[in-house]
Design goal:
With about 120 residues, the protein is of the alpha+beta class. It has a domain of about 50 residues. The protein is built from three helices and three strands, in the order αββαβα.
């Protein structure tokens, strides 16, 4: 029994050390900026140069313009380019998750009993 516990502990230590080594040698990549292009038919002055928000990198603008031209054809024009805002995601608390699990457990127990 002691050998099994020792083997499990050794495996856990190995996995933890491997995880730390991988985290140190493989840094997180920079997030890709998400931009939103307002496609429409703006005035002739805007057809050549769309409004670009200050926080959009300059190398993104030609990519967006080429993508819009490829997807929608030559008649589509980009009126403005800006970063998209991510929706806020609300995560449930651990207490709420535990309560859901306990309710499900009770439901399974009650449903397994015969009704008289």
């Amino acid at each position: 029994m002691g050998a099994v516990v020792a083997a499990i502990v050794a495996l856990l230590v190995f996995v933890a050390l491997l995880g730390r080594w991988l985290a140190a040698t493989h840094p997180e990549p920079e997030p890709v900026p998400v931009v939103v292009a307002n496609v429409g038919t703006p005035s002739a002055a805007r057809r050549l140069a769309p409004e670009v928000a200050d926080d959009v990198p300059a190398e993104i603008v030609p990519v967006v313009l080429a993508t819009v031209a490829e997807m929608f054809g030559d008649r589509a024009r980009v009126a403005s380019i800006r970063r998209a805002t991510a929706p806020s995601i609300r995560m449930p608390s651990i207490e709420a998750l535990m309560q859901e699990w306990s309710h499900e457990g009770r439901r399974q127990i009650y449903s397994s009993h015969k009704v008289r």
